[in-house]
Amino acid sequence: NAGVMQNPRHLVRRRGQEARLRCSPMKGHSHVYWYRQLPEEGLKFMVYLQKENIIDESGMPKERFSAEFPKEGPSILRIQQVVRGDSAAYFCASSADLYYAGELFFGEGSRLTVL
Amino acid sequence: QQQVKQSPQSLIVQKGGISIINCAYENTAFDYFPWYQQFPGKGPALLIAIRPDVSEKKEGRFTISFNKSAKQFSLHIMDSQPGDSATYFCAARSTDSWGKLQFGAGTQVVVTP
Q1: Is the CB of residue A44 less than 8 Å away from at least one CB of chain B?
Q2: What is each CA distance from A19 to A66, A83, A86, A110, in whole angstroms?
Protein backbone atom coordinates (compact mmCIF):
# COMPACT_ATOMS: atom_id res chain seq x y z
CA ASN A 1 0.00 0.00 0.00
CA ALA A 2 1.65 3.19 -1.15
CA GLY A 3 -0.69 5.50 0.73
CA VAL A 4 -0.26 7.33 4.02
CA MET A 5 -0.40 4.75 6.80
CA GLN A 6 -1.61 5.62 10.26
CA ASN A 7 -1.83 3.45 13.33
CA PRO A 8 -3.53 2.68 15.48
CA ARG A 9 -6.84 3.37 13.75
CA HIS A 10 -8.62 3.45 17.08
CA LEU A 11 -7.17 4.14 20.49
CA VAL A 12 -8.88 4.28 23.86
CA ARG A 13 -7.13 5.89 26.79
CA ARG A 14 -8.13 6.86 30.31
CA ARG A 15 -7.58 10.37 31.54
CA GLY A 16 -3.94 10.91 32.48
CA GLN A 17 -2.52 8.24 30.18
CA GLU A 18 -0.35 8.83 27.15
CA ALA A 19 -1.37 8.43 23.52
CA ARG A 20 1.10 7.80 20.71
CA LEU A 21 -0.07 8.04 17.13
CA ARG A 22 2.13 6.93 14.27
CA CYS A 23 2.23 7.99 10.65
CA SER A 24 4.22 6.70 7.70
CA PRO A 25 4.04 9.10 4.74
CA MET A 26 3.57 8.09 1.15
CA LYS A 27 6.64 6.67 -0.50
CA GLY A 28 8.85 9.48 -1.69
CA HIS A 29 7.19 12.11 0.51
CA SER A 30 9.33 13.87 3.08
CA HIS A 31 6.82 16.43 4.38
CA VAL A 32 4.36 15.37 7.07
CA TYR A 33 1.46 17.28 8.54
CA TRP A 34 -0.82 16.51 11.46
CA TYR A 35 -4.41 17.75 11.64
CA ARG A 36 -7.06 17.26 14.29
CA GLN A 37 -10.76 16.89 13.56
CA LEU A 38 -13.26 17.33 16.33
CA PRO A 39 -16.77 15.89 15.86
CA GLU A 40 -18.83 17.92 13.39
CA GLU A 41 -15.92 20.26 12.71
CA GLY A 42 -13.34 20.83 10.03
CA LEU A 43 -9.72 19.92 10.25
CA LYS A 44 -7.38 22.07 12.32
CA PHE A 45 -3.69 22.24 11.51
CA MET A 46 -1.40 21.13 14.30
CA VAL A 47 2.14 20.73 13.04
CA TYR A 48 4.28 20.44 9.92
CA LEU A 49 7.47 18.40 9.97
CA GLN A 50 10.25 17.36 7.69
CA LYS A 51 12.75 14.67 8.54
CA GLU A 52 14.28 15.52 11.93
CA ASN A 53 12.83 19.04 11.85
CA ILE A 54 9.70 20.74 13.10
CA ILE A 55 8.93 23.45 10.55
CA ASP A 56 5.66 24.90 11.85
CA GLU A 57 4.04 23.96 15.15
CA SER A 58 1.78 26.97 15.40
CA GLY A 59 -1.32 24.77 15.77
CA MET A 60 0.02 22.57 18.55
CA PRO A 61 -1.30 23.11 22.08
CA LYS A 62 1.52 24.49 24.20
CA GLU A 63 1.42 21.68 26.74
CA ARG A 64 1.15 17.90 26.61
CA PHE A 65 1.45 17.64 22.81
CA SER A 66 4.64 16.90 20.89
CA ALA A 67 5.55 15.61 17.47
CA GLU A 68 8.61 14.20 15.82
CA PHE A 69 9.66 12.82 12.47
CA PRO A 70 12.94 10.98 12.97
CA LYS A 71 15.48 10.19 10.31
CA GLU A 72 14.32 6.59 10.35
CA GLY A 73 10.79 5.43 11.07
CA PRO A 74 7.37 7.02 11.18
CA SER A 75 6.29 10.39 12.44
CA ILE A 76 4.91 10.28 15.98
CA LEU A 77 2.30 12.53 17.56
CA ARG A 78 2.46 12.18 21.31
CA ILE A 79 -0.19 13.36 23.75
CA GLN A 80 0.73 13.17 27.40
CA GLN A 81 -1.76 13.10 30.27
CA VAL A 82 -4.76 12.95 27.97
CA VAL A 83 -7.99 14.71 28.89
CA ARG A 84 -11.51 14.17 27.56
CA GLY A 85 -11.16 17.18 25.27
CA ASP A 86 -8.39 15.38 23.39
CA SER A 87 -10.95 12.91 22.01
CA ALA A 88 -10.86 13.49 18.27
CA ALA A 89 -9.72 12.06 14.96
CA TYR A 90 -6.08 12.81 14.25
CA PHE A 91 -5.12 12.81 10.60
CA CYS A 92 -1.68 12.66 9.17
CA ALA A 93 -0.97 13.88 5.65
CA SER A 94 2.08 14.03 3.46
CA SER A 95 3.26 15.90 0.40
CA ALA A 96 6.10 15.54 -2.03
CA ASP A 97 7.49 18.97 -1.29
CA LEU A 98 6.44 22.29 0.18
CA TYR A 99 5.16 23.76 -3.08
CA TYR A 100 2.61 20.98 -3.26
CA ALA A 101 1.67 21.39 0.39
CA GLY A 102 -1.91 22.07 -0.64
CA GLU A 103 -2.08 18.74 -2.42
CA LEU A 104 -2.04 16.72 0.71
CA PHE A 105 -2.54 12.98 0.81
CA PHE A 106 -4.29 12.03 4.02
CA GLY A 107 -4.25 8.81 5.96
CA GLU A 108 -7.44 7.28 7.30
CA GLY A 109 -6.89 8.78 10.70
CA SER A 110 -6.42 7.66 14.28
CA ARG A 111 -9.51 8.05 16.41
CA LEU A 112 -8.69 8.75 20.02
CA THR A 113 -11.29 8.26 22.71
CA VAL A 114 -10.48 9.42 26.23
CA LEU A 115 -12.59 7.86 28.95
CA GLN B 1 -11.29 32.37 14.33
CA GLN B 2 -12.43 30.55 11.20
CA GLN B 3 -10.31 31.95 8.36
CA VAL B 4 -12.39 30.17 5.74
CA LYS B 5 -16.16 30.35 6.14
CA GLN B 6 -18.13 27.57 4.46
CA SER B 7 -21.86 27.24 3.80
CA PRO B 8 -24.26 25.56 3.94
CA GLN B 9 -23.56 23.20 6.80
CA SER B 10 -25.62 20.50 5.12
CA LEU B 11 -27.30 19.98 1.81
CA ILE B 12 -29.83 17.50 0.45
CA VAL B 13 -30.10 17.19 -3.31
CA GLN B 14 -31.92 14.81 -5.58
CA LYS B 15 -30.04 12.52 -7.92
CA GLY B 16 -29.24 14.43 -11.08
CA GLY B 17 -29.42 17.80 -9.35
CA ILE B 18 -26.70 20.39 -8.74
CA SER B 19 -24.97 20.72 -5.38
CA ILE B 20 -23.46 24.12 -4.63
CA ILE B 21 -21.15 24.82 -1.71
CA ASN B 22 -19.77 28.27 -1.01
CA CYS B 23 -16.68 29.49 0.79
CA ALA B 24 -15.43 32.94 1.68
CA TYR B 25 -12.14 34.22 3.03
CA GLU B 26 -10.49 37.45 4.13
CA ASN B 27 -6.77 36.74 3.94
CA THR B 28 -5.45 38.12 0.64
CA ALA B 29 -2.27 36.07 1.13
CA PHE B 30 -4.16 32.89 0.28
CA ASP B 31 -2.88 31.58 -3.05
CA TYR B 32 -4.23 28.07 -3.40
CA PHE B 33 -7.73 26.76 -2.81
CA PRO B 34 -8.31 23.00 -2.73
CA TRP B 35 -11.51 21.09 -2.07
CA TYR B 36 -11.49 17.82 -0.18
CA GLN B 37 -14.07 15.05 -0.07
CA GLN B 38 -14.43 12.89 3.02
CA PHE B 39 -16.48 9.74 3.46
CA PRO B 40 -17.43 8.51 6.97
CA GLY B 41 -14.53 6.84 8.72
CA LYS B 42 -12.06 7.85 6.02
CA GLY B 43 -9.48 10.56 5.56
CA PRO B 44 -10.13 13.57 3.32
CA ALA B 45 -9.18 13.14 -0.33
CA LEU B 46 -8.24 15.96 -2.68
CA LEU B 47 -11.03 16.51 -5.17
CA ILE B 48 -10.12 19.59 -7.17
CA ALA B 49 -8.11 22.77 -6.61
CA ILE B 50 -7.75 26.25 -8.08
CA ARG B 51 -5.29 29.14 -7.98
CA PRO B 52 -6.45 32.78 -7.91
CA ASP B 53 -5.30 33.57 -11.46
CA VAL B 54 -8.07 31.33 -12.79
CA SER B 55 -11.81 32.07 -12.48
CA GLU B 56 -13.07 28.57 -13.12
CA LYS B 57 -11.78 25.03 -13.20
CA LYS B 58 -13.71 21.96 -14.23
CA GLU B 59 -12.90 18.30 -13.69
CA GLY B 60 -15.62 15.95 -14.78
CA ARG B 61 -18.80 16.78 -12.87
CA PHE B 62 -16.95 19.03 -10.40
CA THR B 63 -16.40 22.74 -11.05
CA ILE B 64 -14.75 25.40 -8.92
CA SER B 65 -15.76 29.01 -9.49
CA PHE B 66 -13.45 31.64 -8.06
CA ASN B 67 -14.18 35.34 -7.51
CA LYS B 68 -10.98 37.03 -6.42
CA SER B 69 -12.48 40.49 -5.87
CA ALA B 70 -15.24 39.11 -3.66
CA LYS B 71 -12.86 36.69 -1.97
CA GLN B 72 -15.27 33.85 -2.56
CA PHE B 73 -15.10 30.47 -4.23
CA SER B 74 -17.59 27.70 -4.72
CA LEU B 75 -17.86 24.04 -5.65
CA HIS B 76 -20.54 22.88 -8.05
CA ILE B 77 -21.33 19.20 -8.34
CA MET B 78 -23.29 18.64 -11.53
CA ASP B 79 -25.56 15.64 -12.08
CA SER B 80 -25.17 14.67 -8.41
CA GLN B 81 -25.09 10.94 -7.71
CA PRO B 82 -25.75 8.96 -4.50
CA GLY B 83 -22.05 8.09 -4.47
CA ASP B 84 -21.30 11.81 -4.06
CA SER B 85 -22.87 11.72 -0.59
CA ALA B 86 -19.99 12.81 1.62
CA THR B 87 -18.66 15.77 3.55
CA TYR B 88 -16.91 18.41 1.47
CA PHE B 89 -14.31 20.79 2.84
CA CYS B 90 -12.94 23.88 1.19
CA ALA B 91 -9.48 24.99 2.22
CA ALA B 92 -6.94 27.70 1.56
CA ARG B 93 -3.19 28.03 1.78
CA SER B 94 -1.28 31.19 2.52
CA THR B 95 1.89 32.31 0.77
CA ASP B 96 3.47 33.01 4.15
CA SER B 97 2.61 29.61 5.53
CA TRP B 98 2.77 27.07 2.77
CA GLY B 99 2.79 24.16 5.14
CA LYS B 100 -0.62 24.93 6.61
CA LEU B 101 -4.08 24.58 5.14
CA GLN B 102 -6.98 26.48 6.65
CA PHE B 103 -10.12 24.36 6.33
CA GLY B 104 -13.74 25.39 6.26
CA ALA B 105 -16.12 23.69 8.69
CA GLY B 106 -17.44 21.29 6.05
CA THR B 107 -20.69 20.64 4.20
CA GLN B 108 -22.46 17.33 4.52
CA VAL B 109 -24.03 16.49 1.16
CA VAL B 110 -26.73 13.85 0.88
CA VAL B 111 -27.87 12.84 -2.59
CA THR B 112 -31.22 11.09 -2.56
CA PRO B 113 -32.05 8.45 -5.19
Answers
A1: yes
A2: 11, 11, 10, 11
